[in-house]
Write a structure and sequence with these properties.
Blueprint lengths: L2 H29 L4 H5 L5 E8 L3 H14 L3 E8 L1 H9 L6 E3 L3 H9 L3 E11 L1 E5 L20 E4 L4 H12 L8 E3 L2 H9 L5 E5 H7 L4 E3 L9 E8 L5 H12 L1 H9 L6
Parallel strand pairs: 1-2, 1-3, 6-7, 6-8
Antiparallel strand pairs: 3-10, 4-10, 5-8, 5-9
Length: 268
């Protein structure tokens, strides 16, 4: 064999070995389930269970329907209620994927027990408003007006975020008020007015808006002293964490924020 032929054969061998090595590396990287490419290709599927504050009901139902439409084969189920009750259920072992609370203090019930995966993130804020009967027959224009003789006023229980916020607002205004009842979530307080079992209730602005013409809303300046941050978190023992993360991403996306903003929520 000539020196030139030997050199040509050696070059071809090296080229072949390099090509084989590249093919091997490519195959390994594409089949590695731990890579970002592999994890991002997973599509949301199955059922995701969301525990959420009662004040989020209308917005989250809208987002749930949108999520199911965007990801055929998925289902979003909700458990709405007072944030403290939901937190107690989660720490008690109730199966859920996502928790959206109406206050950071309530979320801490879950995080203190290390039942959340990662740090919760604030996704919206909410402020209070007085809900009155349609037409505001009692002529309520301030928190102080809620103390009028004979007026039936309902508050949320102070164990839930809307009750804690109402107490802050009343204290800021120096108003002492004895309600006819304390309710376990904001929807229950609002319902008392809708059914004309009460003349007024201190609830969230978002709930007044959701009620439409069933009630009338009255703003008051002390509400600025009691704005609630709403945090959302993936739960530690989430049965379907992948789909849960996708739903949380929708909530925090520009699309999700538009839905929440239309409901009256404030930006985080």
């Amino acid at each position: 064999m000539t020196r030139s032929a030997h050199r040509t054969r050696r070059i071809l061998q090296v080229a072949g070995a390099s090509a084989a090595a590249l093919l091997t590396l490519s195959a390994c990287s594409s089949s590695d389930p731990g890579t970002d490419a592999g994890s991002s290709s997973a599509k949301p599927s199955g059922t995701v269970t969301v525990f959420a504050a009662a004040s989020l009901e209308e917005s989250f139902k809208t987002l749930g329907e949108r999520f199911e439409k965007e990801h055929p084969g998925t289902k979003v189920t909700f458990n709405f209620g007072g944030s403290d009750t939901l937190a107690a259920s989660i720490t008690g072992g109730a199966p859920a994927d996502v928790f959206a609370a109406a206050s950071t203090k309530t979320m801490e019930i879950v995080t203190d027990r290390q039942d959340a995966a990662g740090s919760p993130a604030t996704f919206v804020r909410n402020r209070l408003e007085i809900a009155t009967l349609p037409g505001n027959p009692a002529r309520i224009s301030s928190l102080k007006d809620l103390t009028k003789p004979g007026l039936k006023v309902v508050l949320c229980d102070e164990s839930v975020p809307c009750g804690t916020a109402a107490r802050k607002a009343l204290d800021a205004g120096g108003v002492k008020l004895t309600p006819v009842s304390y309710e376990q979530d904001v929807k229950s307080a609002l319902t008392k007015v809708e059914l004309k079992e009460a003349d007024a209730a201190v609830v969230y602005k978002t709930d007044v808006r959701a009620a439409g013409d069933k009630v009338e809303g009255v703003d008051f300046p002390e509400s600025a002293q009691a704005v609630n941050d709403y945090p959302i978190a993936l739960l530690k023992n989430a049965p379907n964490p992948g789909t849960a993360k996708a739903f949380m991403a929708l909530v925090r996306s520009a699309e999700g924020q538009k839905v929440l903003s239309r409901a009256g929520f404030l930006e985080p």
